[in-house]
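Why run this: before we spend reagent on co-expression, it is cheaper to look at a predicted model of the complex and decide which construct boundaries make sense. The entries below are exactly what would go into the expression plan.
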Amino acid sequence: YAGPLFIYLLFYFRVPFIYGHKYDFTSSRHTVVHLACICHSFHYVKRLLETLFVHRFSHGTMPLRNIFKNCTYYWGFAAWMAYYINHPLYTPPTYGAQQVKLALAIFVICQLGNFSIHMALRDLRPAGSKTRKIPYPTKNPFTWLFLLVSCPNYTYEVGSWIGFAIMTQCLPVALFSLVGFTQMTIWAKGKHRSYLKEFRDYPPLRMPIIPFVL
Amino acid sequence: MAAAAATAAAKGNGGGGGRAGTGDASGTRKKKGPGPLATAYLVIYNVVMTAGWLVIAVGLVRAYLAKGSYHSLYYSIEKPLKFFQTGALLEVGIVPSSVVLTSFQVMSRVFLIWAVTHSVKEVQTEDSVLLFVIAWTITEIIRYSFYTFSLLNHLPYLIKWARYTLFIVLYPMGVSGELLTIYAALPFVRQAGLYSISLPNKYNFSFDYYAFLILIMISYIPIFPQLYFHMIHQRRKVLSHTEEHKKFE
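The model came back. Tokens follow.
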């Protein structure tokens, strides 16, 4: 996760050799570009902190080949998105400030939601154990999505990226969201299936990732 | 015995020009074949495809005899070529071979026909086009008749031998034709800005088809040797198995 964080910033600060030399270290004049950098960076800082302090993993480590694939994916897409958003010829969203504000709201809400779910999942499992329990909504309204969905963390994650895509109005971001959504849907369905297998009293209303639909 | 082995060996894809998929054969294991209805469908499909590529072959020969030169032969077989090569999309889930490899091969062929040869009219008179068309034609005739005969449990050794031997020449031939064609198309793509989008635009996206084609050409470097040597490996397996079976008959 440090990779995408760092790579995006290279483009944001217009480090030499990326865009034409006359743009070296210049800064965009669009507010949304600065906002996008903040959002993107916030997202990956949050992920880093969560990995360090929040998540409780059932498996010890990740196989080496996965790390290579993961990094290529994250770093590649981060570079691709960052290139266009921070480009000197970037075009801000068609509906201007309204669009940016709405999208930013979506992004922030989904980030909070995602974090809430991570905390709720962590509290399900005592430190050091590998027990599995059905997650339920807590007092935190963001977790009420558990009523409708097995993996609301993925739901919120997709939501964040959709927000980011609308905010930047950038096709590569939309494509990144789509690919991520596809992968997370596969994971969510798997998780949902194993919940159903393991717990006979699993709430029937829940869908894997999108309420009522998927 | 050899027939059962041949049915089991009815796996794999390509064996000749272009991005040949892998051939695969286990001469000794008996496989559960498809049901009678599925078999009938497959036989019909494979017969039709064999016939189609024969039509292309005949078209090539006739056009050559009529014109005396081999320029512009592409035009005489353009339609059936497009039809039957695109039709191969149907076989992606059906052919007893890895879906990944089959779709990869079919997609690369379809890409070459539509996104390069059809789209860049200036290359249609290039000799390189003829090179891969001939390679593909011979390969596909053999490959589809191989499948047909295998399904009917009457695979002549000649066909099996041809499928696992001719690729040695046809595959490099096809690849050369493909690469030369893409290379020939490059300047025209650059000139016309074909299939390319540039900044600025409201979706903040750009695509350079010229660079994309170059990337495709580069990708042949790691991919071609892998597929080629896989086929060589298969050849050793398949043809030596049949020898053993023959000894015991």
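Residues 34-244 of chain B form one domain. The first strand of chain B starts at residue 11 and ends at 12. Bring this page to Monday's planning discussion.
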